[in-house]
Design brief:
The complex is a heterodimer of chains A (162) and B (760).
Chain A lengths: L1 H34 L12 E6 L2 E6 L3 E5 L2 E5 L4 E8 L5 H7 L5 E8 L2 E8 L2 E7 L3 E7 L5 H9 L2 E2 L2
Antiparallel strand pairs in A: 1-2, 2-10, 3-4, 4-5, 5-9, 6-7, 7-8, 8-9
Chain B lengths: L1 H26 L7 E2 L3 E2 L2 E4 L24 E7 L7 E14 L6 E6 L5 E2 L15 E5 L20 H7 L1 E7 L6 E14 L30 H5 L26 E3 L5 E3 L11 E3 L10 E3 L4 E6 L7 E6 L4 E8 L13 E3 L4 E4 L16 E7 L15 E2 L16 E4 L2 E4 L14 E5 L4 E5 L2 E5 L8 E8 L8 E3 L3 E7 L5 E2 L1 E11 L8 E11 L6 E2 L2 E4 L4 E8 L2 E8 L6 E7 L7 E2 L3 E8 L7 E8 L5 E2 L4 E3 L3 E11 L8 E7 L5 E6 L11 E11 L3 E10 L14 E5 L10 E11 L4 E10 L6
Parallel strand pairs in B: 1-22, 38-44
Antiparallel strand pairs in B: 1-10, 2-10, 3-4, 4-9, 5-8, 5-10, 6-7, 6-9, 11-12, 13-20, 14-19, 15-16, 15-18, 16-17, 17-20, 20-21, 22-23, 24-27, 25-26, 26-31, 27-29, 28-36, 29-30, 29-36, 31-35, 32-33, 32-36, 34-35, 37-39, 39-42, 40-41, 40-43, 43-44, 45-46, 46-48, 47-49, 49-50
Amino acid sequence: MIKGTNSKKYFYVLIVLIVLIAAIFLLFILISKSIIPSKNAGPNDNIWNSLERLGANFSVPTGYQITEGMNAIFLKNGIGEIRITKQGTNYSNLSDYLNGLGITVNDSQTTEVNGFTAVSGTVGNQKYYFILTNNWIYSLSTSFPELYDDLDQIARSFRYVP
Amino acid sequence: MLFYTLKNMRLFAGIFLFLPILFFLFSLPQKVFAVESGFFPATTCATNGSSCSNMTIQDSNYNSWIGITYEEIIATFTGFGIPNDSVIDDIQMKMRIKTSTSGWTWFVRASVDGVNYFSPVNCSTFGDVCRYNTTVIFNSITSPTITWLNNNPNHIITGADINSQGFRIKLFQSTGIKNTDIDVLLFNIRYHLSGPTPTPTPTPVVPEPFLDLPWDYEGQGQSFSDAALAINSYFDHEYPLLSSGLTEPAVSLDIIVSSDGITYTKEQRSYSSHDGYDWAKVAKVNIGDPVLAAAAGTATYINSCTPCGNMILIDHGNGYQTRYLHMQKDGLITDVPNNPIQVDAGQPIGKVGATGNIKPAGDAGAHIHFGVFQDKNNDGNFDDNIPDGVTDPFGWQSEDPDPWENYSFFYGGIQRTGNKSYYLWNKSLGGTSSNLTSAGGSFSAGRYSVDFPSDAVSQNTTIELTPQPIISPTEFLSSVGTTLLATARDQFGDIITDFLEPLTLTIDFSNIDLSRYDLSTLSIYSSQDGEVWSQELTDINFINNTATTTIVHFTHFALMAERLDTLVPTTTAILSGEQGLANWFKSDVAVSLSAQDNAGGLGVDYTMFRLNDEDWQQYLIPLLFSNEGHYKVEFYSADNDENIEAVNNVEFDIDKTPPLASISAGHSVIWPPNGKLVPVKIKGAIEELHLFSKSFTVDDEYGKIFSTISEFGEEIILEAKRNGNDFNGREYKIIVHVEDLAGNKSNAEAQVIVPHDQGN
């Protein structure tokens, strides 16, 4: 009888411990998520905000602090920084622009973002997107690999709103 | 308990993350502003072979080593005047070495102690094949791999070392070189002072803003802020040395520090060492547009600076000079050097051009390079303050030290310091930020003004009014001038969108050309996101030229109206020349582009074209093509209401070369003339890539044709018969006629004879 009571007690303690460990694990994940934004978050996840700056509209994940420079905005979070800049150019295509400025983009890919030609790839330790609109060059970049997914999403959300 | 633990975990995690950051911050070296001598010529030198003195830049007559036949020659250079207690950071050397015999090679090494030698970037071995007139560059002589003095790798090189020992240059040359010259030998010594911090210079008087942008941006419908920030190339506060020809350290070549105090890469901002601002297409600065004096002053023309193109300098009489580069030769207010003339603010001084060094090359790269220089020593001469008088007219907008203001360097034999930049534009970039209390108040930014009544807010609020770009939310609707982003924040920085009392927003449109708009549709609109716009109840006053609305919220605002002309113009290409099939020509071709705007439209503004995927150019006169080849001309036009046509194209070919044909008959003689029908095989070839047609004819002088052919290799039937009195024999001609697509024709013929007799 006593033995049976002890077994039940041990069983309950074990159950409580398992639940406790599971709860701690879940809460830890939740806390982690509140510090580090989800890498795979997209505009449809409803945690992205529309940001209109520099004559363009971007979707930016929540959790980024936004500061502005001269024709530049900086998106910073606990991991690092994504930089968006713009400047004018008289080059009529991206290839000539990059060649003219002596910029070599490694693993470059030419795509189209909302109707505008874009080149992506790496320069040094940074991942870049260059987007050419009507004689404006937008560059989006980060040196933090953890932010590459966010950078991709932000670049894909680019809309030129002159 | 659980939450307490988690809270602690977050706390520990925070400390865990923060400690390395603190450690990293404390481990950073103290910031030391390097002093750079700049490239300057050695003033004292001596060789072990002959005399050497007074070496200067560009001294092409320096022949100190003429006649020396040694295989090794050594020169030392001293007298740099570096402070003895300074610590040398880096040394660069450039020299141009000439040898009279181009067939022999040489290489160079440098040393301080005469024991340990180090190599230049080039010409470091005979294998580099340096011969007559080669520039040799030594970089980073203080590389850690170099043992400097007394074989002590830990020796810290000081100014005393350089001053006392100087440099030795050892030239290893092939036996047989008789004459050796050094034309240019420049040293750039970077050092920092190890002594006490120099006494700061007194704070200078802040100058009054006096400049406006050097083109008619308002006439282009732009606000000052929109136009000013439409920048192609920015001022580099790190080393704005472009005017001097000085080079910046290699590590800084791809770095630009803008007036906002932020360091950018060359991928993010161009370009390093730039000492002014470039404005071009995005600022609506187009080739041929008037360049305007940024302020009144005395204008002088300069054409001695090849990279600058045609340049006008304006001395504004307040210690500042503005410079305008790359202008067209035609239209300059003065094109006589050193003949100053007085100009008013806003007066045209020339036309936007593409002279000098520009990117992209040619008319496509047309822009205004605008620079501001200060006469720091107030001697009336700006040239002696180049580059240290270079100034950023946007000022320095950061709380961090301006690297240009704090940069010391040696140039032209003088120790210099960079310049302090002030905001010199007489108009604001916009974006007012003011405090609003419950007592109400009025705020304005450019054309916009906002009046708050009392009790519109219950707490102190920060009001920010920021002009935003022109928008066209629909095909027909367009903003009349710039738009506005109005933002209110409470004491905690949180956005306030709604107010307790209605406020009045007034937009002044007195300086805006309304001819493009349907005035009956003029109205203020608002938008939460800058995309979807709602019309506000608006009172339009055409006497005061103002639009007013009463609102209770802050958001995006714009004065908008429907455009009168929303149809694109139409451009057609007319090709002239001797035309063959389709778009093939056998002559020169002239392409004329004719653009027409729609009926009731505002007219065609410009037509652009590009040839074979090259850069776009403005179409002004018919395009002439003479060389053979394939051409693709793309073109489009824009009207005066910025309706831009889709790109059209026309492709054509010029081929002036006739096809090349050859033909031969299997038998050139048919014998005997027995009246039989004889098959003769016809062979031949045609060299033409774009053949249009090929045909054969048979010419029989008796006029009896039995058959013809359609292709080489076929047989033709000829009659072996001739008249008895035909002493010349019967002559057949088989002719091939060919024509290419351009209409070029040629033919070739083969002859077959039925002779009078066998010997004929």
